Amino acid sequence: MKEKPLFGKRILITRSKKQSSEFSSLLKKNGAEVIELPMIEIVPPRSWKGVDQAIDRLKIYDWIVFTSANGVDFFFERLKDRKKTFTSLSSPKVCAIGPATASRLAERKVFVHLMPKEYVAESILEAFKRESMEGKRILLARAQKARDVLPKGLEKLGARVDVVEVYRTIRPKGGSGKLKRILKERKVDLITFTSSSTVNHFIELLKGEDLESLLQGVLIACIGPVTSERAKQWGMKVQIQPREYTIKGLTQAIVDYFKPKLSDS
User: Model pTM?
Assistant: First the structure.
C-alpha cells in the first residue's frame, strides 16, 4: 500500500473551531495527524446599527463586496432577522473575493457578478478598474479589523464606499499553556495560518517566549500573501504558500511540499 504524502506529519490548525473541519479532513485524508488549536473565534459585531442602516437602504448601492465567507454568513443572517430579502432586481451587484465566498452566496441563490483572479483585496481593485466606478455607491461588508487597501483604492477610482462591520474575530480564552507545551515538546512539524488574525493571536499567546527557539525545525504554511507578510513581520519564515489562496489550495501546497521528501527517505 502506497504511503500517503503527509503520513507521520503533525500539523497544527489555527483556524476557528467552526471552520476547521474541512481543512482537518483534507489533511487527514493525506495521512496527517492534525492538532486543532483555534487562534480566532468569529463573533457578531458589538452593534448591528451600521449593518441595519445599510440593509434599510440597500437599493442605493450599485455594488456590495464580500471579502469572506464569514461576511456572507453574518450579513444574510442579519438580513433574515430583519425579514428582508436579497433579490437580483432590487439589490446591488455582488463581488466575492474568492470561490469559498462565492459558494456561500450561491447557497443563497445570489448571483456573483465579479470575482477576481487572485483572492486578495488588491485583485478586487484590479477587477474594478475595468468597470466605470465614478460616482458608484459601494457597500463593503467585512470584519471589524481589516486592511484599508480596498476602501481607499475604490475611493481613488471615484466610488463612494460605506464600510460595515458584519463580524469580529477575537482570541478564544485560554490556549496559551497548551500551545507552549506543544511547541516545547516538539509535537508539531507544521503550523498553518489562514488569516492575519490567526498570526497575531498566535504571537499574543507566546508573549515573553523565545519565538525563534520555539519554532526551530517547525515549518510555517500561510494561505496567501497577506497572511504570509504578517507572519514575516513577526520574524517567522514562511516555507509554504499556495498559488490559489483557498483551503484546498493550501492543502495541495502542503502535500506538494512533502511529496519529494518521500523519495529521500
Answer: 0.83
